[in-house]
Design goal:
Elements (H helix, E strand, L loop, with lengths): L3 E6 L7 H14 L5 E4 L2 H5 L4 E3 L1 H4 L2 H8 L20 H13 L2 E8 L1 H16 L5 E6 L15 H19 L9 E6 L6 H4 L14 E3 L7 H14 L3 E6 L31 H13 L3 E5 L3 H4 L6 H19 L5 E9 L4 E8 L24 H7 L11 E2 L2 E2 L5 H4 L4
Parallel strand pairs: 1-2, 1-4, 4-5, 5-10, 6-8, 6-9, 7-8
Antiparallel strand pairs: 2-3, 10-11, 12-13
Helix pairs in contact: 1-12
């Protein structure tokens, strides 16, 4: 490869996004790249010429192995949305100015829907203005909602964390033989796509009865039907655990979490910040039936649990980063690496590059056939799909009883 490269991370972190950085670095070094830079806080930091030299951290195997075991975004993330090209050419020219300053010929961006839009716009601008630099997308999102790819790196580890947590919550909730059950409602991330909440179905097995109901945003949430469901469960179960997506919404379009709070703030992409669906429902159940309730919100824990990350997920996150560099070296640009499942038993999955225009800003939902006819259960089709993604473990490096992580000093010292 001629020239240097840069890799950045964007959007919500995952337990394995750093493995993708490790893959980019390893491939680039194998291909003889001199400098592998990291964007400090994504494209937002890059526009300010905030970079770090990854040789300072990853020249030996110890650094790469620690990076695979470090949660969140080692390089720092951002939620900066690139503006439309027309009328904002100066912003795009700044990107190329920084690239030319550091002789960067290839840019790799790890992220989800909005991040792939950044790759699309940068590659389009380069094509329209005769720029030679190349841009590749590296998939990342616990939401698992990118199209075309079989699944997204980051999802398997979050699904593993969710299923494990639900098993533990179920055992805890079933500990007390009270006359009336405690209704435990667990809130799981997912705005419009219910992939994460569906993972609650994986908790069921020979040693676990599983959750009693699962509500995804793919189905309109009927408050009255939910309350009737809880009533029946409370009369027939000694313990009730229900999983709900943070993004469940009613027929009028309001999110359940807005019932008591309609003025939720929005992020840089204009997305309303969701939180409180479980607490809202727990309060309603307690008020109507006089039952003891408990609301559990997994929040950022479900994307930060590297100590329980899926080894399959780690390896695939590494591979998509590695293969993005290989694809760029072959002359490809304006594409994202996708995962292609070749077999279920035994599980086999390969990669290929795909046009970013078919991916950016497109959201994939849980298929209808994987949602039960009752609207609050998950079928075996999903379980067959998801089970291989949570397999395997990578043991943390423990120091003083806690997992050891690797930190980027430029991120810690970053000034806006």
């Amino acid at each position: 490869m001629k020239g240097n490269i840069v890799v950045g991370q964007s959007g919500g972190p995952t337990a394995v996004i750093n493995s993708s950085v490790a893959g980019v670095y390893a491939a680039a070094k194998k291909l003889g790249v001199n400098k592998v830079y990291g964007m400090v806080h994504g494209i937002e930091g890059f526009l300010k010429d905030k970079l770090t030299d990854l040789d300072d951290y990853l020249q030996d195997d110890i650094g790469i192995e620690l990076l695979k075991r470090t949660p969140s975004a080692f390089l720092g993330s951002c939620r900066f949305k690139m503006p439309k090209i027309e009328g904002h050419e100066d912003v795009y020219e700044k990107v190329f100015e920084v690239m030319e300053k550091h002789d960067i010929q290839y840019l790799f961006y790890a992220g989800g829907n909005d991040s792939m839009d950044t790759v699309k716009m940068l590659s389009d601008y380069a094509a329209e203005h005769g720029k030679s630099q190349k841009f590749m997308g590296v998939p990342k999102t616990i939401d698992n909602d990118l199209p075309i790819t079989d699944h997204c790196p980051g999802y398997g580890s979050s699904a593993k964390y969710i299923a494990t947590s639900l098993k533990e919550i179920i055992r805890d909730n079933a500990s007390f033989g009270a006359e009336k059950p405690t209704i435990c409602i667990v809130e799981i991330m997912g705005r419009h796509a219910g992939w994460l909440t569906a993972a609650a179905a994986l908790a069921k097995g020979p040693d676990c009865e599983g959750v009693d109901a699962i509500y995804l945003p793919e189905r309109t949430f009927d408050v009255d039907a939910f309350m009737e469901k809880v009533k029946v469960l409370s009369e027939t179960r000694s313990s009730v655990v229900i999983a709900v997506s943070e993004g469940i919404a009613m027929a009028d379009g309001r999110f359940v979490c807005e019932i008591n709070n309609e003025n939720a703030p929005v992020d840089a992409f204009g997305h309303k910040q969701l939180s409180g669906a479980a607490a809202t429902l727990a309060q309603m159940v307690a008020g109507k039936f006089g039952l003891k309730t408990r609301a559990v919100e997994l929040s950022t824990l479900q994307r930060a649990g590297t100590h329980i990350a899926s080894l399959t997920d780690i390896n695939e996150a590494y591979q998509v980063g590695y293969d993005a560099v290989v694809a760029a070296d072959q002359g490809k640009t304006g594409e994202m690496i996708i995962l292609k499942r070749d077999n279920d038993e035994p599980y086999e999955c390969g990669t290929s590059a795909y046009d970013i225009h078919a991916i950016a800003n497109v959201e994939r939902h849980v298929p209808d056939e994987w949602i039960g006819s009752d609207g609050c259960s998950i079928t075996e089709g999903y379980v067959k799909y998801a089970r291989p993604l949570i397999m395997g473990e990578l043991v943390p490096v423990y120091v003083n009883g806690l997992p050891r992580h690797i930190l980027c000093k430029e991120v810690i010292e970053y000034e806006k």
